[in-house]
Design goal:
The protein is mostly helical and 112 residues long. It has helices at residues 8-23, 37-47, 51-64, 69-81, 85-98. The protein has a single domain (8-21, 35-100), classed as Tetratricopeptide repeat domain (Serine Threonine Protein Phosphatase 5, Tetratricopeptide repeat, Alpha Horseshoe), CATH 1.25.40. The protein is built from five helices and no strands. It is globular, with a radius of gyration of 14 Å.
Length: 112
């Protein structure tokens, strides 16, 4: 709701709280299907112009969810926003491998 109201600072704060809570949940096999709050936090940070913060969030997600296409896409966008185009190119190749169809269809807004 905060994001819909354009209260991006509150949205970032709430997504950070949600990430912290989600990280404390017990492991279950098979893994439960949770709302991807870390991806959403990264997307909001990108929309707020905090590309470095978004990069960190997407990298953290990729350590927990290897080859997650949405986090690879977000990381690619965060690197591009920092003019790290060479790094972004390599991440884009990984994204394309992980996301076989519709690779060009995602937008930052799709992450939130």
């Amino acid at each position: 709701m905060a994001l819909a109201k354009k209260d991006n600072a509150a949205a970032v704060r709430m997504f950070r709280e949600a990430v912290a809570v989600q990280d404390t949940l017990k492991y279950d096999e098979p893994q439960d299907w949770f709302f991807p709050v870390r991806e959403s936090l990264g997307g909001v940070l990108l929309m707020n112009g905090d590309a470095k913060g978004a990069e960190q969030v997407f990298r953290e997600d990729l350590t927990k969810n290897l080859r997650n296409p949405r986090s690879l896409f977000g990381l690619n966008q965060a690197l591009k926003a920092q003019d790290r185009n060479s790094d972004a190119w390599f991440v884009e190749q990984e994204f394309r491998k992980a996301w076989k169809v519709g690779a060009g269809d995602l937008k930052v807004e799709d992450l939130v």
